[in-house]
UniProtKB/TrEMBL annotation:
It comes from Acanthisitta chloris. Keywords: Cytoplasm, Endosome, Lipid-binding, Membrane, Protein transport, Transport. SUPFAM superfamilies: PX domain. GO terms for biological process: intracellular protein transport; vesicle organization. GO terms for molecular function: phosphatidylinositol phosphate binding. GO terms for cellular component: endosome. Its main location: cytoplasm. This is Sorting nexin-11. It is found in: Cytoplasm; Endomembrane system; Endosome. PANTHER family: PX DOMAIN-CONTAINING PROTEIN, SORTING NEXIN-11. Belongs to the sorting nexin family. Pfam families: PX.
Amino acid sequence: LGIGSRMLENREEELTTVRVQDPRVQNEGSWNSYVDYKIFLHTNSKAFTAKTSCVRRRYREFVWLRRQLQKNAGLVPVPELPGKSTFFVGSTDEFIEKRRQGLQQFLEKVVQNVVLLSDSRLHLFLQSQLSVPDIEACVQGQGTQTVTEAILHYAMSNCGWVQ
């Protein structure tokens, strides 16, 4: 092996795996039922504070995230989310699975975009269980913790692994 190839071996490639899995219906049977999804993130990227995390988010939080990314990304196009169901033909399970796939594709595209990756809302969305208003407060410096502290606090609490 020459020096050049040895240097390449040492240069670790940055990889980020994001999976949307385990859809769960919450408040089933009530008028305010909704589905949330487990978002599992594993990375060696320096862009992320925690190297692994696991949070649960619902569709409406994805909608909020996309809106925020769009606002802050300027001319960078933000990937589309799967649509809301108005007239869905087929089973609920089929719909939930299609949505899960769409949410996963959305996040896969987002984490590969350097501009979107610089948005701290994205990091809090993926690596803390803060609510949307708490994410906003944290990003604007009105929370009790910095963005990094909130992510590390969640990572240290092991919440991501209890679910």
